[in-house]
Hints:
The protein is α/β, with parallel strands linked by helices. It has 12 helices and 12 strands.
Amino acid sequence: MSDFDEKPEQKKRVTAQMVADAAGVSRSAVSRAFTDGAYLDSEKRVRIRQVALELGYQPNALAAGLQGGRSHLVAIFVGNMRSPYDTAFVGHLVGRLNALGKWPILIDGSGAQASTAVEDVLRYPLDAMILRGGSMPEDLVLQCAKIGIPMISSGRPVDIDGVDNVCCRNADGTRSMTEFLIAQGRKKFAYISAPRAYYSSTQRRNGVVQALAQAGRELMAEEDGDFTVDGGFDAGMRLLSNHRPDALICANDATAIGALTAAKEMGWQVPDQIAIVGFDDIDMARWPSFDLTTVMNPIDRSVDAIIELLNRRLETPEKSNEMILVKTELVLRGTH
C-alpha cells in the first residue's frame, strides 16, 4: 500500500463534556459559559473559555436551536436563478445576513424536488425563512407560508398571517417606461414576457397594457421569453421577423439584452428604428456594448427592507403583517 492509500485518523469533535472534565466543572456550566446573559461566576466563565480555546471546542449552534435558543439559521428558498438579477440579489442578501450573524441555507425552489426540500429543511431549527418567490409556483409559496415560523416573502405578495412581504412596484415601473416611450413618439409597441406563472412578469406586462390603454393603444405583438439572454434572443428573432414595432419592452434586462443582440444581428437600427428597454438595471445593462435603457429594481433597498422586516418579526412574532413596496426608477441610456 502506498503512502497515498493510507487514511489519516479522523480527529473527533471536542464536546462540551470534554471541556467540563478538563475544567473541573459541570456540563451545564460549560453551556452557560457560552450563552449570552446566562448566570455564571466571571472567573469560572474565563477558565472554561480558556480550556475550550486550548481544546479547540466550539458550541453546537444547532443543538442550541433545538433546545429553544436561536440557531441563527435562515432558509432562503430561491426560484429560477437563471436571471443575473436574482443571482446578484441572493448574493447581496446572503452577505447582509452573514453580517448580522445569520447563516443562510439556500434551497432551490424551482425544481421538481422543491416540495421535498421544504419538508427536509424544516427538520432544522430555523430562525426564519425568506422566499424569493417571484418565479416560484404559487402553490409552493403557499405551502412554505403555512409552516408557522417567521417568514418574509420577496417578489410575490403572500396574504397569510405571520408572513411579511417585500415587493417592487413592477406595474408602476413598466407603466412609467411605456408612458415615457409614448411621449418620445413611439407608436407601435411589442412585449417579450417571462412565463405567465411568474408574478413579476405578469405585473410588468399589466403596467405596459394599462399605459397603452390610457393612450388608446394596445400591444401589436408579443412573445414569451424565460428571463434569460438566450430566451430573449430567440423571442426577439421570432418577433422581429414577423412584426415591425418601434418600441420593444422586455420583462427583464437579460431578455432585453438578448432581444437587442437579435435586433442588431438582423440589421435593425437601435434606437432610430426601434427602442428596446428592460427591467432591473443589472450590471450588464451598463456595459457600453449594450447601454440599455431600463427600469431600476433596486437591490439595496429591497434587501434593506427584508432585513428590517426580519428583525421586527423576530423581536415581535405576534405582530401584524407588514408590506414594503419598493419604488422603481427609469434609467435612461442609449437604447430608447
